[in-house]
Amino acid sequence: MDKVEYTEAERWLIEPQPGTAAAAARDFGIDLSLTVSNLRLTPEERIKKLDHHNDGIQALRRSVRWISRASDRAA
């Protein structure tokens, strides 16, 4: 795996100063490197990524409904 190089501004977010909102988010368990990765994308790339995730969620929901109906018929 390649080592990720961060800009100074990105390091400021990934290694936040104590008492900042970013530090609170990190302490809560939010992976700030994922935020930086998303911010590196263009708005169009972020929308495409979101659409792709939404498509996967919809497919999962259809599968759950299909399994639920099949289970009801078998009972």
Could you walk me through the main structural features you see in this protein, from its secondary elements to its overall organization?
The protein has 75 residues and is mainly α. It folds into two domains: 1-40, no CATH class; 42-75. It contains four helices and no strands. The chain has helices at residues 8-14, 21-28, 32-40, 43-74.
Q: What is the first-to-last residue Cα distance?
A: 49 Å
Instruction: Give the tally of structural domains.
Output: 2
Low-confidence stretches: none
- 3D shape: elongated
What are the secondary-structure elements, in order, as H or E? HHHH
Total strand segments:
0
Helix content: over 70%
What Rg do the Cα atoms give? 19 Å
pLDDT averaged over residues: 93
Q: What does the main sheet amount to?
A: none
Percentage of residues in strands: under 5%
- Total number of helical segments? 4
Class by alpha and beta content? mainly alpha
Secondary structure elements and pairings:
Elements: H1 8-14, H2 21-28, H3 32-40, H4 43-74
Short description:
The chain has 75 residues and is mainly α. It has helices at 8-14, 21-28, 32-40, 43-74.
Q: Features of this protein?
A:
mainly alpha; elongated; 75 residues
